[in-house]
Design goal:
It contains six helices and two strands, in the order H-H-H-H-H-H-E-E. It is mainly α. Strands 1-2 form a two-stranded antiparallel ribbon. Helix 1 crosses helix 2 and helix 2 crosses helix 3. The longest helix is centred in the middle third of the chain and has 51 residues. The two termini are 48 Å apart.
Length: 156
C-alpha cells in the first residue's frame, strides 16, 4: 500500500519533532521509514499501529542525529589535519619551481657562461610552468593536468 501526502507529512513532522534537524539526514530517514511503512501496511492496515511498529524498529532518532553529528565533526577534524601536509606539498612544489628557474641563471652568472643558461633552459621552462601555470594562488591549490593535450577528442 502506498502512503498518501498527508501520511508522509505526518511522518516528516514526527521526524523533525524527534530531533532530526539536518535536511539530508531527515530526507534519508523519511525515505527509509516510508519504505518500511509500505511493507508494514501490507500486514497492518491501521496507519498509526503500523507507524508505531516501524518507529519502535528504528530506535531513537536523537541518537541517530547525535551519531551523524559526531561523524561530521570527525570528518572536519580529519580534513583540517590533512590540509597541513597538502599545503606543505604546495610550498615544496613552489620552491622546486623557483629553484628550477633560478639555478640556471645563478650558475650562468657565476661562471659567466651563456652556454650554462642555454643548457639549463629546459629547467627554466619547467620551473616557469610549475610556478605560474600549475599552482592556483587564489585557492592555494595545485591545478591538475588535463586528460588530453589535444583539442580533438579521440573516440573509437
Amino acid at each position: 500500500m502506498e502512503l498518501n501526502k498527508r501520511q508522509i507529512k505526518a511522518i516528516e513532522w514526527d521526524i523533525m519533532q524527534n530531533g532530526i534537524y539536518h535536511s539530508s539526514l531527515r530526507e534519508d530517514v523519511l525515505d527509509h521509514i516510508c519504505c518500511l511503512m509500505e511493507q508494514e501496511l501490507k500486514l497492518t492496515p491501521d496507519f498509526k499501529t503500523a507507524y508505531l511498529k516501524v518507529r519502535k524498529q528504528m530506535g531513537s532518532l536523537r541518537t541517530l542525529q547525535y551519531n551523524t553529528d559526531e561523524e561530521v565533526h570527525s570528518h572536519k577534524r580529519l580534513e583540517r589535519f590533512v590540509k597541513i601536509p597538502y599545503y606543505l606539498c604546495i610550498l615544496m612544489y613552489f620552491f622546486l619551481g623557483t629553484i628550477m628557474v633560478c639555478l640556471p641563471i645563478v650558475l650562468s652568472l657565476a661562471y659567466m657562461n651563456v652556454l650554462i643558461l642555454l643548457g639549463g633552459s629546459p629547467l627554466l621552462i619547467l620551473g616557469y610552468i610549475i610556478i605560474f601555470k600549475r599552482i592556483d594562488y587564489k585557492k592555494l591549490d595545485i591545478i591538475p593536468y588535463k586528460e588530453s593535450f589535444s583539442p580533438v577528442k579521440m573516440t573509437f
